[in-house]
Amino acid sequence: MTSGRRGFTLLEVMFVVVLIGIMATLVVSRIAPREPDGLISLNRYLSDARSEAMDRGPLILTVEDGSPVVLDGSLEPIDLRSELPDGSWRVVPERILFYRDGSCSPGRLTLKGAKGEESFLIAVTGRAYEAPR
Questions:
Q1: pLDDT tier at 32 (50, 70, 90 boundaries)?
Q2: N or C: which end of the chain has fewer CB within 10 A?
Q3: CATH number at residue 117
Q4: What pTM does this model have?
């Protein structure tokens, strides 16, 4: 007569879960970008600036010493949660305005960084797009 025990032991299930976790970690680490992508990072940054403008009122995006800075109405810098890739930034025109309704004045941001020169167009929606070369 057979004992009637069927299925997996707890130890076997735990071993499989750990093995899947290790494999998932290896796959994700290979897929994740090593350096932040300029367009993705810029869109996160602009989204944070738009959100702050909707809460606080009009804000100004400008470049000081090669780094983008968001200023409030009294021209005090605002610290945003997101970060941008390292490099030298330029903005044309010299200021992009973010309004309380979530829109902004259009412009162009250019980054000279590790990947060379990247240029982004800023639409009135506050979204960045890669500029044609």
A1: low
A2: N
A3: 3.55.40.10
A4: 0.70
Q: Which tokens go with 14?
A: 């735990």
Q: Which is it for the CA torsion 130, 77, 65, 91, positive or negative? A: positive
Q: How many domains does the chain have?
A: 1
Give every strand in the sheet of 77-78, ordered side by side. Answer: 77-78, 67-71, 59-64, 96-98
Residue pair 93/107 in contact (Cβ under 8 Å)? The answer is yes
Task: Label residue 3 by pLDDT band (50, 70, 90).
Answer: low
In a domain, 52, yes or no: yes
Domain that holds residue 50: 38-130
Cα 92 from Cα 114, distance rounded (Å): 21
**Cβ-contact 46, 54 below 8 angstroms:** no
